[in-house]
């Protein structure tokens, strides 16, 4: 009798866990804009990073990507929190193999016509200006025209597009998903050197 009770209890617990996990998966797949915005504004996902996300970020896409690859995102934000970005020399920094890695650059910004609209298929870009200022254009890929088809080696395609141009300054970071065409490194005037962090985070498909 006791043995049968134990078996019944174990089956009930297993069933409850399975239902809970199923509900979590369904929730992430059917996340509403309102639910995503509420999650986003709590900023628990920042993991203590004292920076602000830019207003151009696609919140619904971010919430979905974060739930699907939480480990990668947490590693990316941990890198930002645990390193003094101003003191890091330029170069490439492994975080989680080919899944997540960072690059620090110190390059001069360019005139608008020397920059390009681009998007990536395999990686999401987290871009943060550590020192200096640049302009970054953002436009939906769906409204852009391909001028150079996707190159797997570069993980990039290039476009002509009409988008919004934003100032990128210390304190605020951008996120660019495969659906986002972006045009970074535009000079705000003077082609001055900018120190910048780009973290590549593998996109969930």
How would you concisely characterize the structure shown here?
The protein has four helices and twelve strands. It has helices spanning 2-29, 33-42, 59-68, 70-82; strands spanning 52-53, 91-96, 100-108, 117-119, 123-131, 134-140, 145-151, 156-160, 164-168, 172-176, 180-186, 193-202. The N and C termini lie far apart (49 Å).
CATH architecture: Sandwich
Work out the helix count: 4
The oligomeric state is single chain
Percent helix:
25-40%
The tally of domains stands at 1
CATH topological fold name: Jelly Rolls
- The assigned structural class equals alpha+beta
> Any idea what the shape is?
globular
Distance between the termini: 49 Å
Biggest sheet: strands side by side, in what order?
1-10-5-12-3-2
Q: Which spans have pLDDT < 50 for at least 5 consecutive residues?
A: 5-28
Strand content: 35-45%
Strand and helix map with partners:
Layout (H helix, E strand, L loop, with lengths): L1 H28 L3 H10 L9 E2 L5 H10 L1 H13 L8 E6 L3 E9 L8 E3 L3 E9 L2 E7 L4 E7 L4 E5 L3 E5 L3 E5 L3 E7 L6 E10 L3
Task: Give an account of the 3D structure.
This protein has 205 residues and is of the alpha+beta class. It has a single domain, classed as Jelly Rolls (Sandwich), CATH 2.60.120. It contains four helices and twelve strands. The chain has helices at residues 2-29, 33-42, 59-68, 70-82, and strands spanning 52-53, 91-96, 100-108, 117-119, 123-131, 134-140, 145-151, 156-160, 164-168, 172-176, 180-186, 193-202. A six-stranded mixed sheet has the order 1-10-5-12-3-2, covered by helices on one side. A three-stranded antiparallel sheet has the order 4-8-7, with no helix packed on it. A hairpin with a 4-residue loop joins strand 7 (145-151) and strand 8 (156-160). Helix 3 packs across helix 4.
């Amino acid at each position: 009798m006791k043995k049968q009770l134990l078996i019944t209890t174990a089956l009930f617990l297993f069933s409850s866990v399975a239902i809970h996990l199923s509900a979590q998966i369904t929730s992430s797949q059917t996340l509403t804009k309102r639910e995503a915005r509420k999650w986003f504004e709590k900023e628990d996902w920042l993991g203590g990073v004292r920076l602000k996300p830019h207003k151009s970020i696609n919140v619904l896409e971010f919430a979905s990507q974060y739930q699907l690859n939480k480990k990668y995102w947490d590693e990316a934000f941990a890198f930002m929190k645990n390193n003094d970005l101003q003191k890091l020399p330029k170069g490439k920094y492994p975080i989680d193999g080919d899944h997540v890695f960072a690059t620090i650059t110190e390059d001069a910004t360019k005139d608008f016509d020397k920059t390009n609209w681009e998007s990536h298929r395999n990686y999401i870009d987290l871009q943060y200006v550590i020192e200096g200022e640049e302009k970054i254009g953002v436009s939906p890929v769906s409204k852009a025209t391909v001028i150079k088809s996707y190159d797997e080696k570069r993980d990039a395609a290039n476009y002509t597009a009409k988008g919004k141009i934003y100032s990128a300054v210390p304190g605020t970071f951008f996120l660019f998903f495969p659906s986002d065409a972006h045009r970074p490194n535009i000079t705000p005037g003077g082609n001055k050197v900018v120190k910048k962090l780009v973290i590549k985070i593998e996109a969930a498909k």
